[in-house]
Design goal:
Structural class: alpha/beta
Shape: globular
Number of domains: 2
CATH topology of the largest domain: Rossmann fold
CATH class of the largest domain: Alpha Beta
Radius of gyration: 23 Å
Bound molecules: nicotinamide-adenine-dinucleotide
Distance between the termini: 62 Å
Length: about 425
């Protein structure tokens, strides 16, 4: 059992902090946003993540998980300090490390004994070295701390399961002592034989970017294949399925759609191109992945305008705002581009999402938010499915058609069978599958 301070209670910090508490550690979570801490102390969870409410409750009741607005006692009483603060895209797409260094500055003068400082945030290669130099420049003696890179691979929407049963845990450190402490923290994962990749700090930092860029590449690749399928009369579902049966390729991340989004792939791919630029080389593959992804978001609008060339005063119903199902996160979601482009052309939007409407209001307060799929369809000139929430998979198509002004459906997630939707009388479009409109 270790005493841990978790700095940041966002998607990563709250899930990891709770997971580490569930592993038997004593975890105290701190955030600079007092409203989040207040909510957590009142039993409210500030984000939507399946399974998290119960896991937080269980660990709070066991006394292993606490939330505080006071950084000093949290740092002083902990041996291990995790950084789970944001690392957004900065100017020119480089990673903005200001939150990391603000946090390091905040903890520097609180170091009262040996501390392991663990970076969970996704940071540019070399950042942990800089954290070390930063602390040394604050006159913290080298024997008082060690830095560790411990990148996180959880996926929003299944974050709890991913954290509790990860494919691997990556620990980058030059210190044997810090490695032992980290292994103790993750001991329950040892017992279920989770591979622990112990490596140097730069390699650990690189593993995170390489993994995300590879997954983003798979998505852009299958999206380009889908676009080609449309031109040559082939079916991307069958192509992806047959490709995925090849063990060397793997079936995951081969779903054609409106492009990747979320708080990681867009910023991490962009950061990787900047990291390589700084190192003196171009990552042409990743640059193209980003370009293909940007084009794919626009293809949603192009598909819509194929059926409605002039969007002025047309009402478009949008189903799904979160960048993927089972989350309320809308950061960098492809739908942001779609909404912006429709509004730019004078269109109006009625949107529905089971969890993400509150977040989307921060970006687009001017659009109409409705309480159901049916309300989004009512009097709409077209309906666009942007997120594959389960409740959109089995809608009453006859009813939707009867309440829409024009029965046009753009299914960007390919969740419906084109023939069935067309049989109901919809004009139906999707990505990379045969449709006869
Ligand atoms: N979201 C994901 O799916 C995911 C997955 C893997 C890795 N990551 C990485 O993890 C990091 C965090 O991502 P996130 O999605 O959890 O971000 P988030 O924005 O949801 O949460 C970050 C939290 O940190 C808090 N914070 C900022 N400065 C702080 C400070 N000095 N002290 C304490 N708290 C502070 C913020 O108030 C916020 O609550 C990022 O580097 C991200 O790239 C995210």
């Amino acid at each position: 059992m270790k005493k841990i301070a978790m700095l940041g209670v966002g998607y990563v910090g709250l899930v990891s902090g709770t997971g580490l508490a569930d592993f038997g550690n004593e975890v105290i979570c701190y955030d600079i946003d007092p409203t989040k801490i207040e909510k957590l102390n009142n039993g409210d969870i500030p984000i939507y993540e399946p399974g998290l409410v119960d896991l937080v409750k269980k660990n709070v009741e066991k006394g292993r998980l606490k939330f505080t607005n006071e950084l000093a006692p949290a740092v002083r009483e902990s041996e291990v300090i995790f950084l789970a603060v944001p690392t957004p895209s900065g100017k020119n797409g480089e990673v903005d490390l200001s939150y990391i260094f603000n946090a390091v500055d905040q903890i520097a003068h609180l170091i009262n004994g040996f501390k392991v400082i663990v970076t969970k945030s996704t940071v540019e290669v070399g950042t942990n070295d800089k954290i070390r130099e930063h602390l040394l420049s604050r006159n913290i003696a080298p024997e008082m701390f060690e830095v560790v890179s411990n990148p996180e691979f959880l996926r929003e929407g299944s974050a709890v399961g991913d954290f509790m049963r990860p494919d691997r845990v990556v620990i980058g450190t030059r210190s044997a002592k810090a490695l032992e402490i980290m292994k103790e923290i993750y001991r329950p994962l040892y017992l279920i034989e989770t591979p622990i990749v112990a490596t140097d700090v730069h390699t650990a930092e690189m593993i995170k970017y390489a993994s995300n860029a590879f997954l983003a590449t798979k998505i852009s690749f299958i999206n380009e294949i889908a676009n080609l399928c449309e031109l040559v009369d082939a079916d991307v579902h069958q192509v992806a399925k047959a490709m995925g049966l090849d063990g060397r390729i793997g079936k995951k991340f081969l779903h054609a759609g409106p492009g990747y989004g979320g708080s990681c792939f867009p910023k991490d791919t962009s950061a990787l191109t900047k990291i390589s630029e700084k190192a003196g080389m171009r990552m042409s593959i990743v640059e193209t992945v980003i370009e293909v992804n940007n084009r794919q978001k626009m293809r949603v609008v192009e598909k819509l305008m194929k059926y409605i060339p002039n969007l002025k005063n047309k009402t478009i119903g949008i189903l799904g705002l979160a960048f993927k199902p089972n989350t309320d996160d809308v950061r960098d979601a492809p739908v942001l581009t779609v909404i912006e482009e429709i509004l730019k052309r004078g269109g109006q939007i009625k949107a529905y999402d089971p969890e993400a409407m509150k977040e989307m209001r921060k970006y687009f307060p001017q659009i109409t938010y409705v309480a159901s799929t049916e309300d989004a369809a009512k009097s709409a000139d077209a309906l666009i499915i942007m997120t594959e929430w389960n409740e959109f998979r089995n809608m009453d198509l006859n009813y939707l058609k009867s309440v829409m002004k024009n029965p046009i459906m753009i299914d960007t997630r390919n969740i419906y069978d084109p023939q069935k939707v067309q049989a109901v009388g919809f004009i139906y479009d999707c990505f990379g599958r045969k449709t006869v409109n």
